[in-house]
Every structure is written in structure tokens, then in C-alpha cells.
Amino acid sequence: MAADGKLYVMARHAPRKRWVQDLGRDARVRLRVGDELYAARAVRIGAGPEGEAVARAFLRKYVGVEAEEARPLTGPPSAGDDHAEVWTWRIDPPEPGA
Amino acid sequence: MRRAARALLVLALLACAFLAWARLLHPGPLGPIPGGALAGEPAAAPPADWSFANREDYLLVESRAFTLPWSGRVWFLAHHGRLHLLLPGFFGDDLKRRVDADPRLRVEIDGKVYEQVAAPVTDDAEIGALMAPVLRRQFAIEIGGDVRRVPGATRASLFVYRLDDPR
Fold first, then answer.
1. Is the ipTM reported for this complex over the cut 0.95?
2. Which fold has domain B2-164?
3. Can you give the residue ranges of every domain in chain B?
4. CA of B7: how far to CAs of B3, B18, B20, B112, B166, in Å?
5. Distance of CA A87 to the CA centre of its chain
6. Which is nearest to B87 in space by CA: B77, B79, B96?
7. B-chain residues near A84 (CB < 8 A)
């Protein structure tokens, strides 16, 4: 999804996903939007204002609601907590020379 | 080359046969794959309080809105003792289409099947209260304060239905 003009991707149950493990080894990515292919770099983000803006954008796009407060839970759930582990990346331009 | 194409064709036919078997003959859904009629024992009466159901990740739901019975596993929440279905548009709208055509449903918990009827929840405050635990659990997002529907956001929404005893 896009928030504040930037592109973000999310993964539910992130540690289980193969592409997430690949991203941990090499952050260079290629994205296709429409007919265009873009080289980019995925930068993982955490909580804070940027994470909250992405959570709000997610709620608008995928749930169809606006919430006064929206806070992403980062990191693995503690014992007895069963929330999904969701990781988010900002898609930045590739590093020069990459 | 021809042998590879033939092997692919056989695999595709086997996959189609498996999906048809699950859809037509399997009692209830097969994991995330929709199935036919639920096979549990019909319950004499619904419980007065459904809160016990929250220990389950999914509710097994059957609709007979169209020609063939359809069943699937569905996100749900027991809230204030009543069952609520949460149907995310981005996972497909199979059940929403069916509920809108015919709100009568059957749900299965602990091998017992209950007759229910679904009604859409449209009140923003109620939707906020229902969505908060689901968004936390499924998407690791905590929401608070006022929650309201985005006007016109019908393409990819989380649709909420309350289930009631039809009698």
C-alpha cells in the first residue's frame, strides 16, 4: 500500500515466509506495477509515526475503516498473546551502483 | 516435451478432480478449500451464550443460498455472547454473496450444527468494538478511539454480520 507518497509491503506470519527470509539475505527487490518494472530496496520499519501511518493506510485500503488511533504491534508476540507477527518494509530507491 | 505436457495435463486433471471431490462430496471444508454440507449432528437448541466459541480460530459455516450447499471456514468473534462473522473482501466474497442472497446459515462447533440467520452490522461503534480484537490478532494492529467506515469503501472491506437464532 502507499502512505505519504511512499510504497510499503507487509507480511503476516512473516518469519514463516520464504520470501521474507530471502529479503533478510538480500534487500534488493524488483517490483512490477502495471507494465513497469522497478528496481528498489526493501527497508524494514518498526513502530513510531511511520508504522502508524502505514497501519492507517492498511485499515483504509483493506478493511475499509478509519480509526482515530492505529498502532502496529512490532516484534514477536509474548507468551499467551496470539497476535500474528507482521513485518512491514518501505520500498526505497536502490542504493547507488547496486 | 510431449511427455512433460502430458504429465502437466494429468496433474491439472488430478487437481481439478480433487477440488471437485472436496466441493461436492467432502462433509464440510477441507482446510481453506470450500466443501459441501456440514456433517455434524443437528443441535436441539443454540446456547444462550456463544462466548465459549472464541477458543476456535475459525467457524465452520454452511450456506444453501445457491444450488449446491457451500461450506467454508470463516473468521468470527463471539461478542457480548453472540456470534459475528467477519468476511474480508480481499479473501474473496463467496460467503458474502451467499449471505446477501439468503441469510440462513448453519454453523458447526464441537460436532454440533446450529441453524442461524445473519444480519449485517452497520453501526460504526459496534463495528469498531468487533474489529478491534480481530485486527489485533490477525494483523497486529491495535485500534482505539472513534472508528468509522470509509465512505464508498466497498471494494475491499471487512464485512460484519451478526448471527441470530431464527426461531
1. no
2. Pnp Oxidase; Chain A (2.30.110)
3. 2-164
4. 6, 16, 20, 43, 51
5. 6
6. B96
7. 137-140
Give yes or no for A2 touching B (CB within 8 A): no
Residues of chain A neighbouring B138 (CB-CB closer than 8 A): 12, 83-84
pLDDT tens across A14-46, in order?
999 999 999 999 999 999 999 999 999 999 998
Q: Is B83 exposed, middle or buried (0-12, 13-18, 19+ CB in 10 A)?
A: buried
Determine contact, residues A90/A50, Cβ cutoff 8 Å. yes
Q: Tell me: the pLDDT tens digits for B120-151?
A: 988 888 888 888 888 888 889 999 888 888 87
Angle at the Cα of B105 (from B103 to B110), degrees rounded to 5? 155
CA distance B47 to B38: 19
Give B24's pLDDT tier (boundaries 50, 70, 90): confident
